[in-house]
Amino acid sequence: MWRMSRPVLMLFILLSVSSMLGCDGYSDRSGGMPQRTPEVAVVTIAPSRVVLTTELPGRTAAFAVSEVRPQVGGILQARLFEEGSVVEAGQPLYQIDATLYQSAYDSAQAQLASAEAALTTARLRAQRYTSLREQKSISQQDFDDAQAALQQAQADVAQWQANVAGARINLGYTRILAPIGGRIGRSYLTPGALVKADQDQALATIQTLDPIYVDMNQSSSELFALRKAIAAGRLSDDASAVVTLTLDDRTAYPLEGVLQFREVVVDPTTGTVTLRARFPNPESMLLPGMFVRATINEGVEPEALLVPQRAVSRDDKGNPIALIVDEQGLVQQRTLSVSRMIGPDWLVQQGIAAGDRVIVEGLQYARPGQMANAVPFEPVTPSNTSDLPAVSAQR
Fold first, then answer.
1. Is the pTM of this model over 0.85?
2. Which residue of 90, 173, 259, 327 lies most exposed, with the fewest beta carbons within 10 A?
């Protein structure tokens, strides 16, 4: 009779036992053992007051701009300011050679004095002729000539008074004054240059930088949706029109601005409306032409429903969806209508009601129609992570 060797016998026994264990494990899995109810973390939705904001790109613009130009011609004698400095309204900026204008003023004054002397003579003659006419010692023609000479002398005086005033104005224009206060740029002409009245070339440019404007463009569709929400009562416009700025280097501008106005015309090429805000700028941190990001408080939603972004996903059609746990502990899927992001949350218009428990963690274990054990969601904060074991990095 054939007998197996000892090593072969041991191998046969091991294979038999392994096969029996495999069959038992399969029957255990296919025997329909009860599944454990998954545990999910939920957030209970509660209405809250939310100030709606809109972030728009913007560009700074000077509060006032004035190009300094001469109003009389002549040789530029001196520059009376320092380039890049702050000037006050009425401060002297340039001096034009005033020799000819001083001479014209003196001549006009002399002519005025002569006309006033002639007026005195004509007045005295008219007075004498009036007395003589009453005595009928002179003819009517002589009396009329004396009255006409008096009126002519009065007209000559008025004319030369106007000439003196004009000469005085032109003489004053030889000293060019700052029309507005602000920061003045570089001088485009130097002393010795010939200038003329109303020339195209400006001598310098003054810009008022405190306060300063920020011009922004908002989509007309967004503006229409905002006004529609206010008209429907979903929003109240009691939020002050406060505007904050973020600079190009992502730092926040420390001072708040105020929304001045919205343009009443939509740009047909871009479909946008221009908005303008005014900001204090005492340190001249903002300069004209800078690009910034402006955040505008547009309205208040007193009963806003906010759902964490991590709780919202998308279905096959791209619609936002969320899973909730109802009062019976069943998981339900809701299709949401969201309007905008507010911090880490979505502002939901439809699909969620106050009191709903939205699943935030454990979404991979929850299925619509199945039971779930809902526990309150506890966000990770420094206070509740202090008890976690420290993990040292190994190199």
1. no
2. 327
